[in-house]
Amino acid sequence: MTPPDTATATRNDLHAQMIALGEAARAAMQELASATADRKNAALRACAAAIRAGAAGLKAANAEDMEAAGARGLTGAMLDRLMLDDARIEAMAKGLEEIAALDDPVGAVMAEWDRPNGLHIARVRVPLGVIGIIYESRPNVTADAGGLCLKSGNAAILRGGSESFRSSTAIVACLHRGLREAGLPEAAVQQVPTSDRAAVGEMLTMSGHIDVIVPRGGKGLIERVQNESRIPVIAHLDGNCHVYVDGAADPAMAVSVVHNAKMRRTGVCGAAESLLVARGAAASILPAIIEDLAASGCEIRGDEATRALDPRVVPAAEADWSAEYLDAVISVKQVADVDEAIAHINRYGSHHTDSIVTGDEAAAGRFLERVDSAIVLHNASTQFADGGEFGMGAEIGISTGRLHARGPVGVEQLTTFKYVVRGAGQVRP
Amino acid sequence: MTPPDTATATRNDLHAQMIALGEAARAAMQELASATADRKNAALRACAAAIRAGAAGLKAANAEDMEAAGARGLTGAMLDRLMLDDARIEAMAKGLEEIAALDDPVGAVMAEWDRPNGLHIARVRVPLGVIGIIYESRPNVTADAGGLCLKSGNAAILRGGSESFRSSTAIVACLHRGLREAGLPEAAVQQVPTSDRAAVGEMLTMSGHIDVIVPRGGKGLIERVQNESRIPVIAHLDGNCHVYVDGAADPAMAVSVVHNAKMRRTGVCGAAESLLVARGAAASILPAIIEDLAASGCEIRGDEATRALDPRVVPAAEADWSAEYLDAVISVKQVADVDEAIAHINRYGSHHTDSIVTGDEAAAGRFLERVDSAIVLHNASTQFADGGEFGMGAEIGISTGRLHARGPVGVEQLTTFKYVVRGAGQVRP
After folding, report:
1. Same domain, A18 and A75
2. Identity of the residue in A260, A374, A425 whose CB atom sits nearest the CB atom of B379
């Protein structure tokens, strides 16, 4: 007799549990897809109320997560991301209420037309289906992602960071209370049954149960998901954003836009990582930009021509042109003109967000047309790369993919469409 | 000394050739993305003229393919798909001219709005980038796919069936002549350098060079591509389409729609494979439908209640409810009402195209809302599932995926968008 293989048994258990989760999500999704906007919004507001009412329980569960994380030696920044206090709990509740206030994307007629044979065709927004969301430590994503999926009529299967498992479980319990109160199925928002990493592997193969995977987190997580997933992925990979200061730029505007693009928050994906300056304007504009950045504590890595302008500029290596620092560091290069700027950005950039500062409309038009990025700006900071700043409401992230969702991913981007065709007995010749 | 490994050397050669192809495509794409509609249309018309002028050469190349295929023992249907004659050559040329006549999707402003801070945001259609198309024997796909990509500003990398390699090579040469005449880069449309299957494997890993893969062909090809691709795939998998004849259906319309949906062409993806009939209407409507189908030579596989109506109905097995016959066979099931029909279709269908025949607007509305398929019809044949019938012009296929393109994939679906933001020096608070 061979002894029972416990690891295999556990894996089989998890697989069965995940399939059950997927089937419950599919059933819930069919109910959600035809739920009225009023009912979904009532559920979102009830979820917010349940989170406020459950604050003590959320903090208790979070304290257990924090204690375990401290014992495992997590660093200060990671512990800070994990922590829930009254302000963060209130922000989660308020976020759900803001999602409730958004327009409902489902059922909107995107286009409609008549055919010569009398058929009437409408393209109508419908939910994507079941969305799997894989994220790291911040537990508030549980409420945000669950709320965005609910609003857009999708069922959500959530897999948060293992270190926030207790916090997320408590948040999901609040969401379930809200869903129940509004008469919607609890399975609209589900959490994987274990903090084990194996749950991620299971999710990525559930192509019959999950319609799209949204990973949120560091590059390591995103790359793992993109490589392993058998399901379409909407994800944010790199944000190597540029500001190009053209020869016809207003100097004060150039200083202000570059400062904001780089220094407002250095850790966000829309932060500028590279500055290109037209050679003809370098002497007149670049010194003031360097002065401003250096005074703000930004490290400046420049090409030779830029180093000649200021001794605080250190040499840039080839790798700097592709780097996403997410820190107070910027690379600076002088270019001949807008065409060289465009070529540089299309070669080294990550097709995320790039801005031109210029008073020359022709140069701006060329840049906006030819830079192949999700967001291109003229005379504005790259840090506007954000669903809220675009007026789209809350976002689940910014997609660097080209298909389906490009740029901010809000509730509208969490939908697909169907064609609804009405006839009077037409048959095809 | 070890002998040189020829297979490895060949693989390395192919890899290098494919990377070179990918880089040429990327460069061509940047030119194409900003080419005017007039120039692209001139190129399409010049390609059509080159195909007409090159007819003799095309037939000679095709004759070599046909001879080799015959020697390899290909069957009649496969040989027919491979064959090019004057009519098929003219159809290719005409197809390119029809694509030229379509509206240009690139540059269209899909939406635009102002923000309170004065930023103006526009969502503008742009090409997807480089599209890899993998298809089977029909050489006309070379011209169709190349033309659709060109119109939508995308560079195409084509990999046709190995048995049609000489024909496709000759067609690509005609397209190159047309592109040259219009002053566009030949690398806008390229064919892989070998008929070897290894080229497919190379394409599926070129995520840095190819933005989307479109496979066209049998289920084996599609599944291989979906399983192996590291690049997003737009594909058509199954077309298990249903007609549901409701209790309130007009009997003559029901017979006519079912006949057309099943029998107009049995081999297309929009052909109905399954008929559901409301139990209350079975006695009054179903005998005439069975009579019509049987008289047309269709095999009918029914549930017990349907078999009781006519001795020509043979028993349906569980597998019949999921089957895509692509042949003169239909499965027939009686259901209680529209809700059971919806549940059956969402469970066994392939989310492609499904139709309800009824005079009851409430039942129709319920069906159109709740059946989770790319195309849902009321009182019309499922065989209208076609880009041309939708008024979208030529299509590269019908997508059964939910993301990006759902249903017919025409030139508009071969685009993505970018956000163009215009400011006056705005920075983010």
Report:
1. yes
2. A425
Q: How far is CA A355 from the centre of its chain?
A: 20
Torsion, Cα of A161, A164, A169, A170 (10° steps)? -150
Contact, B225 vs B336, CB < 8 A? no
Name the percent of chain A lying above pLDDT 90: 84
- Chain A contact for B194 (CB, 8 A cutoff): no
Instruction: For A366, list phi and psi in degrees, rounded to 5.
Output: -65, -45
Same domain, A216 and A283: no
CA distance B385 to B268: 9
Q: Does B110 touch chain A (CB under 8 A)?
A: no
Residue B348 maps to which CATH number? 3.40.309.10
Q: Is residue A411 part of a domain?
A: no
Residues A303 and A323 in one domain: yes
**Partner residue facing A428 (CB), from B253, B346, B383:** B383
Say if B25 is an interface residue toward chain A (CB within 8 Å).
no
pLDDT-derived band at A18, boundaries 50, 70, 90: very high
Structural domain that includes position B196: 13-237+410-419
ipTM of the complex: 0.92
Based on the structure, what is the number of domains in chain B? 2
Asked if the C-beta of B373 comes within 8 angstroms of chain A's C-beta atoms, the answer is: yes
**To the nearest whole percent, how much of chain A has pLDDT over 70?**
98
A286 in a domain, yes or no?
yes
Residue A72 has pLDDT above 60, yes or no: yes
Which CATH number covers residue A112? Answer: 3.40.605.10
Q: Determine whether the interchain pair B211/A404 forms a contact, defined as Cβ–Cβ distance below 8 Å.
A: no
Instruction: Report helix, strand or coil for A314.
Output: strand
pLDDT of the residue at A1: 40
- Chain A contact for B369, CB < 8 A? yes
Say if A117 falls within a structural domain. Answer: yes
Contact assignment for B227 to A232 by CB distance below 8 Å: no
